Amino acid sequence: MENHSLLSLTVALLGFLSPCLTRLNPRVSFPMGSPGRHLTRFSSHDVSNTTTLLLSEDGDMLYVGARDAVLALDVSHKDVIILRSKLDWSPSEKDLEQCSMKGKKMADCPNFIRVLQFLNTTHIYACGTFAFSPRCTYVNSETLTMSLKPDEGRGRCPYDPFQRNSAIIVDGELYTGTVADYRGNRPVISRHLSEGRRVDLKLDDTLGWLEDPTFISSSFIPDEEKIYFFFSEVGREYDFIDKFIVSRVSQICMSDVGGQRTLQRRWTTFAKAQLLCQADNELPYNVIQDIDTLPPAEGAPADDTLFYGIFTSQWSINSGQSAVCSFRLTDIKSVFSGNYKVLNRDTLQWSTRVQEKVANPGECGLHNASDNALRFVKENFLADDSVRPVGRSLTMVSAEHNYSHLTVQRVQAANNREYTVLFLLTESGYLHKAVLLQGGTHIIEEVQVFEQPQPIKSLKLSITKGMIYVGTSEGVVRVPTANCSFYWTCPQCVLARDPFCGWDPFSRACVEASNNQTSLGQDIDRGNVEEACNSVSLTHSSRFGPNKLPAGELVSVSLNEVVRLQCPAVSRLSQQLWERPNSRLSSDLYLHLKDGSLSFVATPTTLGHYLCLSTENGYQQTMAIYHVKQKSSPMAQTPTSYTWPQTHPIPTTQAVARPGPGLYTSVGTWPKRIETIQGETEPTVSSRDTPVTTRQLGRNLTLWTEESGQKEAEVQDGEPLVLARGPCYLKELVVVSVLLLLCLSLQITMLMYVIRQRCRSRTAPQAGTPTRDSDRRTPVEQEALRGNQFLSKCNGQALHSGQMRPEVKRGHPKYQSHHGDCQWVVLFAQPMTRYKHCGLI
Ligand SMILES: *[C@@H]1O[C@H](CO)[C@@H](O)[C@H](O)[C@H]1NC(C)=O
Ligand SMILES: *[C@@H]1O[C@H](CO)[C@@H](O)[C@H](O)[C@H]1NC(C)=O
Ligand SMILES: *[C@@H]1O[C@H](CO)[C@@H](O)[C@H](O)[C@H]1NC(C)=O
Ligand SMILES: *[C@@H]1O[C@H](CO)[C@@H](O)[C@H](O)[C@H]1NC(C)=O
């Protein structure tokens, strides 16, 4: 019992942690196989690693780059995905032999298709790793046949199937970001398939224009006639931290044809800048994982194009967390048109020197410029300023979900307002649907799409068909962007706050908002049921007044039997509450279990009506009504066990699907206690055969609103029932209690300390701290801070991350390390700076 209480206390305290964590939990969860979300899957025994996806414009055909194959999947049917044709494209035995002789694992030697793009109306361009010797080919999109001899794939496709790359075809030309050699250390951004006066271009590789990058994605902005590349790389400008990773956006102009003497066959329009995903005074989320482009709303200028990216942190202190940041095209453009950093060729150090601008780096149309101008752009390609996120803040942070991929859509709601909906894929295989609201992000739901962690995966959104495709090694899964009919009542439909769904009062169903824009019950911003479901709730409350109870579900029990009434949570954001008409639920007699069910011993006083109420977002509804009656015939002893039918319309939140371990423990302790009270023979009740007496009310669920009055406080799950009335072990109890108390206070003290530390690191630091910090600095330090300059009095050594300890106590998060007499401190402020103490530390 002691252990048990300790455990529950710890759990309670951990729960107490929640206010300081950004808790972003999906409102409802659909585990694999859940009837509320019908997934269509394509997989086949002779197809694997289906991870590169390309969707036809009409959304009827999905092309898939797999292992040794390109597939054409017909996705125009409602319930099935049909394999239309398959192109086999694998390396020869000899190629494979050579690959493995070069020391590569045989499993990585097949041809993994990593580039799949429409070339023109009749052909697809495909590239694969082809036994670590990449190749490309033209594929007829109708017949899926190879039409020409394969091309050399160097610079177009990675050698290593686990290396990330980006590729996009615009106007018949292929723009790629990938490594162009076998060992993976010659990264390049290049253009291929250019014809006539237009020549293939690449980066000038003498200058280190890229520093060990991981390419994420690229995006074509028609109005700018530019391609933007997104990647992460080592931030050499921060040479004071070893291997500090920064996220970048870079650009090139489509009109580029290279210079005439200087920069021949090289980009003259390449420029890069840092993308910052960092809240004030927090450690940066510095590693970009994925990014998607949200085109401007209809009628808005191209400058309003947004890029939504997922970022994680390089440091273990933030591991398992991810953040979403959005960037506006205008901001990217203004950073590229600003000043550029200068690289000192001798010391290889970057500086911000105000210099005369001979040319504007990143400007289109420089191919005809003077050698002098081209030399200038060749050396000035790193923008001085960083691109800050929209609103200078993070769009969302998730402490518990490690997001890897996202796709974004603008959805018009019933009120004609537009909402941004993000689909985020977690590493653990769930697809989250989140809507961005003024007050923060609301995660509408999560759908499980794969079971095993996947090294390579991809996400494709078909806006026209309202479908998401997830490509993994397990196959291709299709998920509808919404299933409004899952919400079977108006309050559920409104509480979901799903811009795709609204309540149609005429058909009395939750329908797709696009089908019917008029008079739909919907409130995305506030989820106010009273207003959105006005007419509906009125009819219900007039049907059942609080004094006119409907009969409810009949539950027949024998006396002294343990009864458990179930009331599954409709959503993870709801709170369950049990009530009896005209009677209190004394904690002496009733046990409220964590899954929302109510457990008690059937006695004459506990017979009667029970209501389960659910409160969410200030709205209360009755979820279940039970009438517990004594069995008429004592012969009919077999307890009737109802379980939830598999197809019940009440959503199974995961909390319901997987009851916590504490649940059965507490039920298991019942029989002994009952013995104490009753002094009778031990009832044959165990955790296994506890009669689970319940049934759903289904679609005709009674709904009425009530003013939430003074309700019984809920008994925490696992809290010991104080039932003992007869002989009691008072002395023992006191001794144990005192010991327990001591133990507990120690634990609490420790926990509180941890919590305080964690809270500090998460909540925005107190205003004024930085000022105090700067007051304390010596003039030398302030100098160093002001100039963002490395002030080297000791040996000028770079800080090595291995020796550094992240510290996020007050003010700016910082890293510290010791070198001889000196202590280096890196402040993750904006701009990032460092200073040092020498001598006395
Ligand atoms: C939507 O939900 C309803 C109710 O749970 C279910 O019957 C139906 O199959 C679901 N449809 C899809 C496409 O998931
Ligand atoms: C290919 O799929 C297998 C599982 O089927 C997986 O183990 C392997 O890592 C995948 N390889 C790539 C390059 O995706
Ligand atoms: C598309 O490109 C392929 C390969 O270059 C070419 O054979 C074909 O004629 C092109 N189709 C059209 C419609 O231009
Ligand atoms: C480059 O400049 C020369 C003259 O300076 C001009 O004749 C030529 O048309 C220009 N070429 C382009 C591509 O603008």
Written account of the structure:
The protein has 841 residues and is α+β, with helices and mostly antiparallel strands. Among the domains are: 163-399, YVTN repeat-like/Quinoprotein amine dehydrogenase (Methylamine Dehydrogenase, Chain H, 7 Propeller), CATH 2.130.10.10; 485-531, ligand-binding face of the semaphorins, domain 2 (2-Layer Sandwich), CATH 3.30.1680.10; 540-730, Immunoglobulin-like (Sandwich); 783-838, no CATH class. The chain contains 13 helices and 44 strands. The strands form twelve sheets. A five-stranded mixed beta sheet has the order 1-28-27-26-25, with no helix packed on it. Strands 14-15-16-17-23 form a five-stranded mixed beta sheet, with helices on one face. A four-stranded antiparallel beta sheet has the order 2-31-30-29, with no helix packed on it. It starts with a helix and ends with a strand. The structure holds 2-acetamido-2-deoxy-beta-D-glucopyranose (4 copies). Residues 48-49, 51, 112, 161-162, 455-456, 473 line the site of one 2-acetamido-2-deoxy-beta-D-glucopyranose.
CATH structural fold name of the domain at 163-399: Methylamine Dehydrogenase, Chain H
Low-confidence stretches: 1-22, 536-549, 636-728, 759-806
CATH architecture of the domain at 163-399: 7 Propeller
Cross-sheet strand order for the largest sheet: 1-28-27-26-25
CATH superfamily of the domain at 163-399: YVTN repeat-like/Quinoprotein amine dehydrogenase
Mean pLDDT: 77
Estimated radius of gyration:
32 Å
Hey, roughly how much beta strand do the residues contain? Answer: 25-35%
How many E strands?
44
Largest sheet: 5 strands, mixed
> SS-based structural class?
alpha+beta
